[in-house]
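Appendix B, record 7
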Amino acid sequence: MTYLLSLIGTESSIDRSEQFLCYYINNAMNIQIVRVINEAKCLFDRVVFSRESILFTALPESYLEIHSPLIDGIRISRVDCKLLHIHEVSNLAKSFVEVLN
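Structure tokens (predicted):
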């Protein structure tokens, strides 16, 4: 299942024209907590189950912080949202974005 998450409406100072669509899939066997971070602020965080994917909008300077459980703790990974940017948007993704606007 794919969920669409958006920064739109989370903060009035965010310029919609700067946002771009990103895609992430949890290929791990466990749940993960993902957070979109921008300028040391958490813009949103979500639980992503195994094999679940999310579409989300992000700003160019944002990164995705991924918290994965391990036997002896939690591994935290960071991925630049520019690497998750969808360059060719399908008609389905376009319709999701149009609904948000």
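Remarks on this record: Residues 2-100 form a domain with the Immunoglobulin-like fold (CATH 2.60.40.3110). Strands lie at 2-5, 20-25, 32-38, 41-48, 53-58, 63-70, 73-80.
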